[in-house]
Design goal:
This protein is mainly β. It has four helices and 22 strands. It is about 10% helix and about 45% strand.
Length: about 325
């Protein structure tokens, strides 16, 4: 099982578009309205950062004692290694290869810290245990996790998910170069309670690749469904920004297995001037969902919100003091990406 814990209080994607006998209202919009497949399915993401990012610095045991070349040179946690001796570094494997082949000679390391790119020189040392040359960094070049698909555009097969960005342990927004999307099954739930967000626990179905992730931004993860992946979905018209009103609505979400289900909610407030994509305040009113999850939990963000048969937005955040309440993003904001 793999889980990305820093999908900001929510996320959940899967792509078995059988929909398991789900009923969707057929009160769709006019002929010129965009048509999408309703989401709510859980999926697993593996997102590549493009360059290894340092997540820790360590000491290396050598014949002459312990040494930490990276720390001595001035590298810090959060730095992204762009190139070594003019060679682009796109993976941890590539970084280790070049460092080991150095035989302890000085390396020119170009790294990015925030928005600034700098160059330093590092002298690798020989690890007494493995015999390999190292510089003393712990790095990652990808992250994995689960999230929820909001919709799939019927005109081009592109999907949108999450409704918010993804942050790392340092609270910095992650940047990705690309990624792979796999089918995912929800295998358990930690229920949300007042003061503590719950979460969905999912498992990748690793042999079922269903698409690619191409963009991560403030509105979520966007990408394309694989042409080889055979999916069918329930059609829904996309509402304009003026359509959402306080009152009854519903969401689709997967909180068990691979099949999304329909759950009743109430739109408590619509704020057309909201910041941070918090366009709606919603409340879970469905007794079955509350019994199973306690309300909104991590893993549900991206769940599509429908009202009067139209897609109006997606679940994004939960209120920590009341897990039955949370925020939603306007669908038109996601469509602009």
């Amino acid at each position: 099982m793999r889980k990305l814990s820093f999908f900001l209080l929510g996320a959940s994607l899967s792509f078995s578009f059988a929909f398991c006998n789900i009923h969707v209202d057929t009160n769709v919009a006019s002929a010129d309205a965009a048509l999408v497949y309703v989401g709510g399915m859980s999926a697993g993401f593996t997102l590549r950062s493009g360059s290894p990012q340092i997540v820790g610095l360590c000491e290396i045991m050598t014949e002459n004692g312990v040494s930490s070349p990276a720390l001595k040179a001035g590298l810090k946690t959060g730095d992204k290694i762009v190139s070594v001796n003019g060679i682009k570094i796109d993976s941890i494997t590539r970084l280790n290869e070049i460092v080991n082949k150095s035989n302890g000679k000085k390396l020119s390391v170009v790294y990015k810290r925030g928005e600034n790119t700098n160059e330093i020189f590092v002298y690798p040392v020989k690890d007494k245990v493995s015999g390999n040359y190292k510089i003393g960094v712990l790095a990652r070049d990808s992250v994995s996790g689960i999230g929820t698909v909001t919709y799939i555009d019927q005109s081009n097969g592109r999907f949108a998910s999450l409704g918010h960005t993804v942050e790392g342990e340092n609270r910095q927004k992650l940047q990705i170069s690309d990624g792979t999307v796999y089918e995912c099954s929800i295998v358990g739930v930690n229920k949300g309670v007042r003061g503590r967000a719950g979460e969905l626990r999912g498992m990748f179905i690793g042999d079922k690749r269903i698409g690619t992730a191409e963009k991560l931004c403030d509105c979520g993860i966007f990408g394309s469904i694989s042409k080889e992946f055979d999916y069918t979905g329930l059609s829904c018209a996309v509402a304009d920004s003026s359509s959402a009103v306080p009152g009854d609505a519903y969401i689709y979400s997967t909180v068990n297995g691979i099949c999304p289900k329909k759950y009743e909610i109430e739109i408590v407030k619509v704020d057309r001037n909201a910041k941070d994509n918090k366009d709606f305040v919603i409340k879970i009113t469905d007794d079955a969902l509350i019994a199973e999850t306690g309300g909104i939990v991590q893993g549900m963000s991206g769940s599509p919100i429908l009202q009067n048969g139209k897609l109006i937005g997606a679940v994004t955040h939960v209120f920590l003091n009341d897990p039955t309440r949370g925020y939603g993003i306007d669908i038109q904001t996601m469509l602009k990406e």
